Description:
Largest sheet: 5 strands, mixed
Radius of gyration: 54 Å
Structural class: alpha/beta
CATH topology of the domain at 34-160: Rossmann fold
Number of strands: 7
Low-confidence stretches: 18-25, 199-222
CATH class of the domain at 34-160: Alpha Beta
Amino acid sequence: MFKNIQMCCLAVLLYLTTSAVFVKAQPTPSAPKTKLAVLKIIYADFSKEDRELINTAFYAHLSQNERIAVIPEKAVEAEMQKVGVEPAALNEAGYINAGKLLRVDYILIGKMEKVGDFVEVTFRLFKVSLQTQEEYSGGKTLDIFVKQEIPQIVAKIQRDIEPPPTIAPPPADTVRVALPKPPAQERIVEKRKRSKWPWIALGGVATGGAVAVILSSGGDEIQPAKKGLPRPPVVP
């Protein structure tokens, strides 16, 4: 009996410990980045060395912001040429359409002109969705322009670039696993052994009573026992 009870308890305990709800973990999505395409930068009266110096410093500072995905001129030009559009031939009306075609959030146009040792610069930032623009200008000597002016202008551009709207991550998929039900407990009915002593006693009483009746009978008739003194013997 005790062995059966222990087996049933173990079965119930196993079912409770293995019944669980498994949650399918979703991969943590990375923060979305704002896409910025440098459509074109015009260099006027710059030597090849000076142009490369400015271009290197400009992209180095522009790419430092982790929330902005920068698409440089060469990549933009390759994408635009696939659809038969030359970025250098675009005017102001075509900048927004180019941004929609590239599927970016912002378009950047730049113009740098060298007058003697002085560098004049103008950048225009177009927000594709709102069709608005911001302008940044400055002027320094070439050495100061590379070391000071470019970092300041790039910092202003980055501040004006708004991050994309935050999208809440999808809820985790809850997968419920159906586990088999525990085995039904067997109903244990304890059979008690009935004592034989009452039956033996009852049989003894019945047997003794029958003997007493037979002994008290003198013949065929059964005479009841009389109370009082015994009768005197009959004298012949």
